Amino acid sequence: MTRPDEQTGRYGDVRDDIDHIVVDRGRIAERVDGIADEIASCYPSGRELTIVAVLTGSLIFLADLIRCLPIRMRLDVVSVSSYPGDATEARELQWRLPITADLKGRDVLIVDDVLDTGQTLRALLSSVRSHRPASVRSCVLLRKPAPGPEERPVPDFVGFDIASEFVVGYGLDFDHLYRNLPEISVLARHARRPAE
Ligand code: IMP
Ligand code: MG
């Protein structure tokens, strides 16, 4: 094991910043296949699907998922964030890239990484619905327990239900780092403070 950087407290190898793996590569691959089957069975053949994916956290999941989906589909990406910078607590929602695809009369599937408070998915559902699509469904890779009594939107497809811990990897970040880790993991304590 290498020594941590004196200023940031982080190790050079991202794997040394991981406390434990929550979902390994094998389980991810198997479940992504399963979700793709569930999704494909909901859309009759001959209809085109429009996926609206939320950057940046869903990027790796999206790439794996759409390659398992043998249906005709279009792809639009939006960017909306409730975790600016290094914060691990929900903040105000920021739209960085709005919907650009024509969704009117289309079958839309929203793809996001994590359902936590439900704020992001609620905002997306309402934005997508304002385009008058034929149908709207949603898919999240991870669902955490509801943090409070407020109602959350119910996703149609869920990869894994996990504990309410902050996780990184497989597209998910902490302070813009760790998206490239192939597993979904909990960060070690020394890595949870922001870089100077
Ligand atoms: P919500 O709006 O509170 O449901 O939060 C969902 C968004 O927060 C997700 O799209 C993620 O970008 C981010 N998020 C929530 N939990 C985590 C986590 O454990 N790791 C990384 N990002 C997270
Ligand atoms: Mg997100």
Name the descriptors:
single chain, 196 residues, alpha/beta, three-stranded antiparallel β-sheet, 3 helices, binds inosinic acid
Structural class, by secondary structure, is alpha/beta
Low confidence ranges:
none
Radius of gyration: 17 Å
In round numbers, the mean pLDDT is 90
Percent of residues in helices comes to 10-25%
Distinct compounds present: inosinic acid, magnesium ion
Spatial strand order of the main sheet = 4-3-2-5-6-7
Order of helices and strands: EHEHEEEHEEEE
| General form | globular
Number of strands: 9
Taking the alpha carbons of the first and last residues, their distance comes to 23 Å
Strand content: 25-35%
Number of helices: 3
Main sheet characteristics = 6 strands, mixed
Explain this structure.
The protein has 196 residues and is of the alpha/beta class. The strands form two sheets. Strands 4-3-2-5-6-7 form a six-stranded mixed beta sheet, with helices on both faces. It has a three-stranded antiparallel beta sheet with strand order 1-9-8, with helices on one face. The two termini are 23 Å apart. The model has no long low-confidence stretch (mean pLDDT 90). Bound molecules: inosinic acid and magnesium ion (MG). Inosinic acid binds next to strand 5 and helix 3.
